[in-house]
Amino acid sequence: MALIVQKFGGTSVGTVERIEQVAEKVKKFREGGDDIVVVVSAMSGETNRLIDLAKQISDQPVPRELDVMVSTGEQVTIALLAMALIKRGVPAVSYTGNQVRILTDSAHTKARILQIDGQRIQRDIKAGRVVVVAGFQGVDEKGNITTLGRGGSDTTGVALAAALKADECQIYTDVDGVYTTDPRVVAKAQRLDKITFEEMLEMASLGSKVLQIRAVEFAGKYSVPLRVLHSFQEGPGTLITLDEEESMEQPIISGIAFNRDEAKLTIRGVPDTPGVAFKILGPISAANVEVDMIVQNVAHDNTTDFTFTVHRNDYNNALQVLQGIAAEMGAREVIGDTDIAKVSIVGVGMRSHAGVASRMFEALAKENINIQMISTSEIKVSVVIEEKYLELAVRALHTAFELDAPAGNTAE
Ligand code: ADP
Ligand code: ASP
Ligand code: MG
């Protein structure tokens, strides 16, 4: 008999009918003899609806109160699923994050899980109950409700699986696994049987929202066997594996990730003297803005142009800070651009293959797509391009790295 943690995402519990379907599925697993802990998200669209409501009161809602509100989405779905299970004769009980005691830090809207008390859940499992836990939420040591950041129910699932020493954590969603890239953008994307934690971490951090990055971090750290599956279609899904060997037969590139969440800022004509990067990025970081990519170029006249990207939500804030810095340093001008996108190729195979980056640049050049910024690490190459070319770039790279599915073998 195995203990399985099953997480169902927003679209999988998006209507009462779907919740009934999830209950049927959980019932079948129970009948197969497994112990089940279920983690659910809010109904799809609900978290956005709640955030919109808050924004009608204030542009920047007080984070503590926002958490009190957005956590209600998951409270609805846990109760509905528990009811649907009980209706089917499956003993079940639902708990909020606070009731389980999923202890987090106090960083409202992006809290980190510190500890999970598994006792109450273990008692219910022993008593033969399916335990349904609210994803995305926790409680800090003072008893304040916290949330874990968008997509955070994945993290609740994996963290619970680690705390309960579950045999597997299954992430059920609206696609049947992790694909070479988002199958909604590239119809020829292919499902991967396996992907390494390292690659999945890069994919998640570079924009593939199929798994929240912290969920992957947790799974890697605590060696939680993790699988992504379709909620309502049978299939093996994708296993996230520690074992790089097993993936050796995959192509050099495992996947392509992209994100439209960044904005670019440039400060031009800054004196090229020691400490310049610190003078620019010090105040940016003091304003709590995280910087992603950075490029610095020195001109003939011994001035430098300094460009960096930030999350689009931080753009206005960063622009204001940068204008202040420019005035202080006597810089020529500050330029901002929100119409950018980042495209990244990811694969452990890059370690043993040269020329991967140039193959990427060649594919983009053939489509006449200008590269504005580049950054590389051992297993990824990222470029910033104009946002309107994003889909074209992803498709071109997918073909160039021979990731396209054979005809007739595409998703959905
Ligand atoms: P859930 O509500 O179940 O958590 P999400 O919307 O958060 O679901 O994540 C699933 C979505 O992730 C898919 O519908 C798909 O469009 C998107 N996605 C992005 N990149 C990938 C990828 N590489 N493989 C699979 N899905 C991806
Ligand atoms: N409901 C939350 C969100 O929409 C958490 C989740 O779905 O994982 O971000
Ligand atoms: Mg999600």
TrEMBL record:
<feature type="domain" description="ACT">
    <location>
        <begin position="265"/>
        <end position="348"/>
    </location>
</feature>
<comment type="pathway">
    <text>Amino-acid biosynthesis; L-methionine biosynthesis via de novo pathway; L-homoserine from L-aspartate: step 1/3.</text>
</comment>
<dbReference type="InterPro" id="IPR045865">
    <property type="entry name" value="ACT-like_dom_sf"/>
</dbReference>
<dbReference type="Pfam" id="PF01842">
    <property type="entry name" value="ACT"/>
</dbReference>
<comment type="pathway">
    <text>Amino-acid biosynthesis; L-threonine biosynthesis; L-threonine from L-aspartate: step 1/5.</text>
</comment>
<dbReference type="GO" id="GO:0009088">
    <property type="term" value="P:threonine biosynthetic process"/>
</dbReference>
<keyword id="KW-0808">Transferase</keyword>
<dbReference type="InterPro" id="IPR005260">
    <property type="entry name" value="Asp_kin_monofn"/>
</dbReference>
<dbReference type="InterPro" id="IPR054352">
    <property type="entry name" value="ACT_Aspartokinase"/>
</dbReference>
<dbReference type="InterPro" id="IPR001048">
    <property type="entry name" value="Asp/Glu/Uridylate_kinase"/>
</dbReference>
<feature type="binding site">
    <location>
        <position position="179"/>
    </location>
    <ligand>
        <name>ATP</name>
    </ligand>
</feature>
<feature type="binding site">
    <location>
        <position position="47"/>
    </location>
    <ligand>
        <name>substrate</name>
    </ligand>
</feature>
<keyword id="KW-0067">ATP-binding</keyword>
<keyword id="KW-0028">Amino-acid biosynthesis</keyword>
<feature type="binding site">
    <location>
        <begin position="173"/>
        <end position="174"/>
    </location>
    <ligand>
        <name>ATP</name>
    </ligand>
</feature>
<keyword id="KW-0418">Kinase</keyword>
<feature type="binding site">
    <location>
        <begin position="209"/>
        <end position="210"/>
    </location>
    <ligand>
        <name>ATP</name>
    </ligand>
</feature>
<feature type="binding site">
    <location>
        <begin position="7"/>
        <end position="10"/>
    </location>
    <ligand>
        <name>ATP</name>
    </ligand>
</feature>
<dbReference type="Pfam" id="PF00696">
    <property type="entry name" value="AA_kinase"/>
</dbReference>
<keyword id="KW-0457">Lysine biosynthesis</keyword>
<feature type="binding site">
    <location>
        <position position="74"/>
    </location>
    <ligand>
        <name>substrate</name>
    </ligand>
</feature>
<keyword id="KW-0547">Nucleotide-binding</keyword>
<dbReference type="GO" id="GO:0004072">
    <property type="term" value="F:aspartate kinase activity"/>
</dbReference>
<dbReference type="GO" id="GO:0009089">
    <property type="term" value="P:lysine biosynthetic process via diaminopimelate"/>
</dbReference>
<dbReference type="Pfam" id="PF22468">
    <property type="entry name" value="ACT_9"/>
</dbReference>
<protein>
    <recommendedName>
        <fullName>Aspartokinase</fullName>
        <ecNumber>2.7.2.4</ecNumber>
    </recommendedName>
</protein>
<dbReference type="InterPro" id="IPR018042">
    <property type="entry name" value="Aspartate_kinase_CS"/>
</dbReference>
<dbReference type="InterPro" id="IPR002912">
    <property type="entry name" value="ACT_dom"/>
</dbReference>
<dbReference type="InterPro" id="IPR041740">
    <property type="entry name" value="AKii-LysC-BS"/>
</dbReference>
<dbReference type="GO" id="GO:0005829">
    <property type="term" value="C:cytosol"/>
</dbReference>
<dbReference type="GO" id="GO:0009090">
    <property type="term" value="P:homoserine biosynthetic process"/>
</dbReference>
<dbReference type="InterPro" id="IPR036393">
    <property type="entry name" value="AceGlu_kinase-like_sf"/>
</dbReference>
<comment type="similarity">
    <text>Belongs to the aspartokinase family.</text>
</comment>
<dbReference type="GO" id="GO:0005524">
    <property type="term" value="F:ATP binding"/>
</dbReference>
<feature type="binding site">
    <location>
        <position position="184"/>
    </location>
    <ligand>
        <name>ATP</name>
    </ligand>
</feature>
<dbReference type="InterPro" id="IPR001341">
    <property type="entry name" value="Asp_kinase"/>
</dbReference>
